[in-house]
Records
---
Amino acid sequence: MEIRLINIGYGNIVAGNRVVAILAPDSAPIKRIVTEARTAKKLIDATYGRRTRAVIITDSDYVILSPVQPETMAARFEAEEEEIRSSH
């Protein structure tokens, strides 16, 4: 299986095939997930001090904060999938 790399903002890249979900950070359950990840030392803050616009959950229970909108990241995933399909 190929590793798909997805830009999550400011030059930060995540292995796309390890991402389980990309969520908006506004709801109380998501805020709780972020707090729990911080306590468990499984939080990666890739915002560079900017506002968190997306919370990425990985299959290894890491939580990544991103300054990029979830819709933008979803479009990047779609573009990557389309590129993979057209190359095969």
Note: The CA atoms of residues 72 and 88 lie 25 Å apart.
---
Amino acid sequence: MTAPLSPALVSVPGAEHTSREIAQQPEAWSRVDRIVAEARPELGSFLEPLLAEPRLRIVLTGAGTSAYAGEILRTALAAHTGRRVDAIATTDIVADPLGSFADDLPTLLVSFARSGNSPESTAAAANATDLLGSCAHLIVTCNADGDLARLHRDRSDSHVLLMPAEAEDAGFAMTSSLTCMLLAVLLAFGQRPAGSVLPLADAARAVVEGELGARVDDFAAGVPERVVYLGSGSLKALAGESALKLLELTGGAVVSWADSSLGFRHGPKAFLTDRTSVVVYVSNDPYTRQYDLDILEEMQSALPPGRVVAVAGRPDGLPAELTWLLPGLDDTDDVALALPAVVCAQRIALRASLHRGIRPDNPFPDGEVNRVVQGVTVYPLPAR
């Protein structure tokens, strides 16, 4: 088996940043817990009056991986706050601002941004302010000097929640930046009780350092031409992020697809060949879990042995030989389960990249895809 992913892996040329940023997540999450706890008085003063408005609309936004952060959170945040919550990518807001903000409701725009320097990040926030009668901004970012943080730092309608400095991933793909920002919002809105970060960190540590990580590496060593990620609810969005991570870090050498456990049968199942592997994220919700178990069984029947794995927090109903069990998370809600589960996907992507001789810190050395998006023209808002 491959050696555990640890800080020692930073000696691998071209993987120093990405490997370190994946490995640092359990410790980084503890720092996020402290940051949010220290910011609690100011956060409460900012959020409580907004959440007291029954007509409040919360819009979760970002681009790429940051957009998936909002999609992972959406349903859980809506259930927790009792407010309307929409996840709309900044790229969609910028391209269709009038459609994104067709309802002029009191709005809290929650912006996720690793650097805060993407043109869509600042444009989406500006569009919301310009088009809505009442719009507040929660900026969740890893870069204190980024455009988004700088523009909102001193505004009375904004609160900037900064992540630990090391969460601003220097590698090409977002890894610890995603999980730190996702966790920060869970904590900021009070969805996670005191002490709840430790089990999540311990589960992620099992992927980073333990035997579970070695099983992930064995799977990645045999990653074929295609990989499908499936999940339901919050875990469907996690599947999307997982597929993106594999596509990014392998420079497109491995083609990936993501869908819901039920939706995959409706056409996208045509993606399957005998050279396809499937990862199913299994929900902890007893009802939703049934659909994940059904598609898992179907994929086992359709593909050769070793091509299908399940990532789960509970073992019931799952074959041990193909299950990556995240320890200590039997009763964890799916939105929190996504945090250690995505570490599995990050490790698959890292190892698959290295197996193909690709440098995951910069899988596009010719610059055809960039760490911070380039070449975007932001046009003036259309007339209403």
Note: Residues 6-10 have pLDDT under 50 and may be disordered.
---
Amino acid sequence: MVITEDRLKQTFSEGGAQEIYQEVKAIGDFLGFARQYAFGEDYRVARSALWGLTKASTEELSQLQVILNELIEQAMTTDNSSVRRLTLNIIEQLDMKEEDLRTDFLDFCFEHMMDVEEFPGIQSVCMKLAFRMCKFYPELMDELERTLEAMETDYYKPAVKCVRNRILNGKLKATIRTFAPSNIKVK
């Protein structure tokens, strides 16, 4: 079956997302697929394309490294929470070097991880991304820790509390890819 915008508009299930992924995998052009569909104005098309891309391995998603900034822009500017969450999940799978650190994106992650009105999936991934970016600078890591310690945990869902606690207890390092060079130690 051919991937088209009309088909992506109709993808509403996990199975449909898996099918999209399998077809993109068969072609091997994750970057071309993302450029064609993940940034579309129709949020249903973008959501379905991104959902299919989240099924890809980290190695497969590495093709998207060249559009990291476009993905970051989309995450920060979209009005659609599904597109935001899926885009952030893809960003989390990409590498980021110290020179890729964007303070506007770090501020965005801090804001959305603390926003009790935000969806827990977005809060959690923003917290993970903030952690990874802050690892470049001890002063930022200190700020992140102070911010997390100040959170009123009664207002957050269990998933968010879990990520928060894992960061504060130094246990998150084993579950996410690090942005930091290997010579920087994880607390």
Note: The longest helix spans residues 120-134.
